[in-house]
Amino acid sequence: MTIRHDWTRAEIQALFDRPLLDLVFEAQGLHRRYHTPNTVQVSTLLSIKTGACPEDCAYCPQSVRYDTGLDAEDLLELQTVTARAQAAKDAGATRFCMGAAYRSPKAKDLAKVAALVRAVKGLGLETCATLGMLTPDQAVALKEAGLDYYNHNLDTSPEYYEKIITTRTYQDRLDTLEAVRAAGMKVCCGGIVGMGEGAEDRVGLLHALVTLPEHPESVPINLLVRVEGTPLADTADLDPFEFVRAIAVARILMPRSHVRLSAGRSGMSDELQALCFLAGANSIFYGEKLLTTGNPDTARDRALFARLGITPEAPPAADVAHGTAAQDTAAPIGTAATPDAAHIATGAPAAA
Ligand code: SAM
Ligand code: DTB
Ligand code: SF4
């Protein structure tokens, strides 16, 4: 099967229109050709700079324009971040994602974030950051600091986008993605469903992702977390099967990518999450908090992995080679990377 970038919207719509079980069956079949079955990549998120963001993203509790009761926080100190990263590693995460509520980082912020990246990388974790728009030079500086992934989402279709965000354009986002690629980092790019968009907008989002010059290595599919005070707080529920379809179609379109069952897991049953894994999701955020909202606690996720026979995925050795724990990564993909990661799979408590 060749990797295609020329999918049309009509072809993608036709995938969405298939009977659910046919769609999931095909997605799982393709998944098994490109990935180790029953293996899920585990990332932990930390908000390193919270709230007071000038942007107007209608879904976001961190925009200064909405009263969501969130306490804004300046950029965290290095020691705080490294302690949280070490705790995430001890709990079994292999990638640490740092999120900041910036429109785009200022030079002084970027230098501080680069130091955080260097330190987290030094712990033997894969690194990811999401800081808003980047210039090409900023992307190079982050790459040089040891950043493996940059997360920057397209969020929705180009048509629905302007109903959600007015303070930056779709093209701005594409420009940042290009800068990230040019700097040699891996791209984490996906979107949010359940924002009141139409089925054609979910098609449009996935079309925008699959027609990028290179498929993102990581594709987070977020289910909107409805936060009181944001314009989308009262958005109607999305049929959970439509969410599963979005995962399955992402898997079929971008077979080599990791598809992340991202925000929204707190409100999902174990059975729905299992269906998402069957549809080809093979990455999650692990830890009680996403950025500012809740996520299943680690005990629930350990139990879920144990019940489903899922094992955390080992990170590629090259991505942690500069860290102190590179020797931990000798285990092949499909087995637990570290004793820390192993306890996610067994449901056993984390080491103290
Ligand atoms: N400020 C930076 C930016 O917007 O690029 C980085 C942080 S921002 C919170 C990262 C992503 O989180 C957004 O692009 C969006 O896809 C996702 N996100 C934010 N709020 C969300 C919510 N309430 N539900 C689901 N996803 C959300
Ligand atoms: C992504 O696609 N989802 C994450 C991560 N990238 C940065 C963020 C989800 C945020 C959910 C709302 C919150 O916790 O503030
Ligand atoms: Fe700011 Fe990012 Fe939230 Fe938009 S999604 S308001 S840019 S923190």
Plain-language structure description:
This protein is of the alpha/beta class and 352 residues long. It has helices at 9-16, 20-34, 78-90, 107-122, 136-145, 158-164, 170-182, 199-210, 240-253, 270-278, 298-308, 339-346; strands at 39-49, 95-100, 126-130, 149-151, 186-188, 191-193, 218-223, 258-261, 283-285, 311-312. Helix 8 (199-210) links the parallel strand 6 and strand 7. The longest helix has 16 residues, at 107-122. The protein is globular and about 50 Å long. The chain starts with 8 loop residues before the first helix and ends in a 6-residue tail after the last helix. The structure holds S-adenosylmethionine (SAM), 6-(5-methyl-2-OXO-imidazolidin-4-yl)-hexanoic acid (DTB) and iron/sulfur cluster. 6-(5-methyl-2-OXO-imidazolidin-4-yl)-hexanoic acid (DTB) is lined by residues 45, 61, 99, 130, 151, 153, 190, 220, 222, 225, 262-263, 290-293.
SSE order and pairing:
Layout lengths: L8 H8 L3 H15 L4 E11 L28 H13 L4 E6 L6 H16 L3 E5 L5 H10 L3 E3 L6 H7 L5 H13 L3 E3 L2 E3 L5 H12 L7 E6 L16 H14 L4 E4 L8 H9 L4 E3 L12 H11 L2 E2 L26 H8 L6
Parallel strand pairs: 1-2, 1-9, 1-10, 2-3, 3-4, 4-5, 6-7, 7-8, 8-9
Helix pairs in contact: 1-8, 2-9, 3-4, 4-5, 5-7, 8-9, 9-10, 11-12
The site of S-adenosylmethionine has 19 residues, from loops.
